[in-house]
Each structure stands twice: as structure tokens, then as C-alpha cells.
Design goal:
By secondary structure, this protein is mainly alpha-helical. The protein has helices spanning 14-34, 43-70, 76-94, 103-133. It has a single domain (23-133), classed as Hemerythrin-like (Four Helix Bundle (Hemerythrin (Met), subunit A), Up-down Bundle), CATH 1.20.120. The protein contains 4 helices and no strands. Bound molecules: fe (ii) ion (2 copies). One fe (ii) ion binds next to helix 2 and helix 4. Residues 13-129 form the Hemerythrin-like domain.
Length: 136
């Protein structure tokens, strides 16, 4: 299941954990609608939520980057690069041309990708700065 909060995401930094949970919640909303096979066209609804996901993701990334700058984190550029890639990927969703052909399948694939990516980012890259922050 996409965008499901896991214990492994906990970095023990309250504000960051809160923001990661919120990201997962928004993503899960999109997934829950995309998975509905009720014959309704959910495209606009899903796109609205993906927009919300984009806005909140940007807010979260900026928050993280500012925090890491403040503490002179060595790997800030890796964070910035990965964040930039993800924002680009979410943005790309709205400009896809093949999305009408097999809407549900395409949207579910996109949501899966976004979920997988952010989960790995939290568990690897974000965990790395969390370990660093415990030392400063
Ligand atoms: Fe993060
Ligand atoms: Fe991050």
C-alpha cells in the first residue's frame, strides 16, 4: 500500500516527524481515491490532491534545507539535489500527455513511485542528517 507511515520513518525529531506524517497523509488521500474502481472519473480530484502534495512537499523541503544550513550539514547538497528531483517529478505529473489513455493505471503508478521515493529518502538521506543532528 502506498504512502503508509512506518515506524522506520521516525527520526525522533518532533517537527520533522510531524511533517513526514503529514506528507504521508496527503499522499495516502491521493492513493485511496486512485484505488477506487467505482467507474467515476477521479482525475480532477486526484490532481487537486497531488497539487496539495506538491505544495506541502515544497514547504517541508525548504524547512529541512533551512534547518540543515543552520547546522552546517555536510551533505546539504545531496539533500537539495534529491529534493529538487522529487519536486520535478511531482510537477511532471500535471504535464503528462499519456494520462488519459489508461488513467487509473498511470496515476497509480505515479503515486507508487512518489511513495516509494519519499520512503527511501526519509529512511536513507533524512536519517543520515538525523544522526548528524544528534551530534551537534
Ligand atoms: Fe524529509
Ligand atoms: Fe529530505
Amino acid at each position: 500500500m502506498a504512502f503508509k507511515w512506518k515506524e522506520e520513518f521516525n527520526l525522533n525529531i518532533d517537527e520533522i516527524d510531524k511533517q513526514h506524517k503529514k506528507l504521508m497523509e496527503i499522499g495516502k488521500k491521493a492513493y485511496d481515491i486512485a484505488i477506487l474502481d467505482d467507474g467515476y472519473d477521479r482525475y480532477d480530484e486526484i490532481m487537486t490532491i497531488l497539487d496539495e502534495l506538491l505544495e506541502y512537499t515544497k514547504y517541508h523541503f525548504e524547512y529541512e534545507e533551512n534547518m540543515l544550513k543552520k547546522y552546517n550539514y555536510d551533505h546539504i547538497h545531496d539533500q537539495e539535489e534529491e529534493h529538487g528531483f522529487y519536486v520535478y517529478k511531482i510537477n511532471e505529473v500535471s504535464s503528462r500527455e499519456d494520462i488519459d489513455d489508461n488513467q487509473r493505471k498511470v496515476i497509480l503508478e505515479i503515486i507508487d513511485f512518489l511513495s516509494e521515493w519519499i520512503s527511501n529518502h526519509i529512511m536513507i538521506a533524512d536519517r543520515k542528517y538525523a544522526v548528524f543532528l544528534k551530534t551537534v
